[in-house]
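Re: that backbone. Tokens:
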């Protein structure tokens, strides 16, 4: 599936709410570690706050008809250390496995390393999401640690992998 990324804006509030949060996909919520369903006002307030935040770059993942499929985010950008966090969510489980997340990840890594001139991008992925872990590895991320019992979800503890990619690793693969 062809996709495009766009910067999340205030104008996207309604489409963002309808696509990802109005009728949330329970499986997506589980794989992203989401415990509470936010209400519309919380999502709107969140968007209004983050679009003005210089420590993050939030993108919506859209199909060619501008339907929002998910989001991909560079967060906690630290320009002094040239590093940031990364997260991604595809809002509908039926869209998983089609390469959407991989394509969005590669584009956001390009932004991180080529436009923002960062040195390190890191993420956390739950041990019960092996599909995501494989995709991150395909995109060049390496496991660098494990937070044992790092999340308590559905009444049990699960481990959390810490993964990262450095700018020279990105350049060797993609440039």
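Recovered sequence:
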């Amino acid at each position: 599936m062809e996709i495009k990324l766009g910067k999340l804006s205030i104008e996207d509030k309604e489409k963002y709410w309808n696509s990802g949060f109005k009728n949330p996909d329970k499986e997506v919520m589980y794989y992203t570690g989401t415990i509470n369903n936010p209400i519309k006002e919380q999502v709107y307030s969140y968007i209004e706050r983050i679009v003005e935040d210089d420590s993050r770059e939030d993108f919506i993942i859209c199909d060619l008809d501008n339907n929002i499929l998910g989001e991909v985010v560079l967060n906690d950008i630290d320009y002094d250390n040239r590093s940031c966090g990364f997260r991604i969510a595809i809002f509908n489980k039926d869209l998983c496995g089609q390469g959407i997340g991989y394509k969005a990840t590669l584009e956001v890594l390009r932004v991180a390393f080529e436009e923002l001139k960062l040195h390190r991008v890191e993420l956390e992925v739950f041990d019960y999401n092996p599909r995501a872990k494989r995709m991150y590895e395909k995109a060049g991320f390496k496991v660098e640690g494990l937070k044992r019992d790092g999340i308590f979800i559905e009444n049990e503890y699960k481990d959390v992998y810490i993964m990262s990619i450095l700018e020279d690793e990105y350049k060797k693969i993609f440039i």
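Helices lie at 13-20, 26-32, 40-50, 100-115, 130-138, 167-174. Residues 25 and 94 are 10 Å apart (CA to CA).
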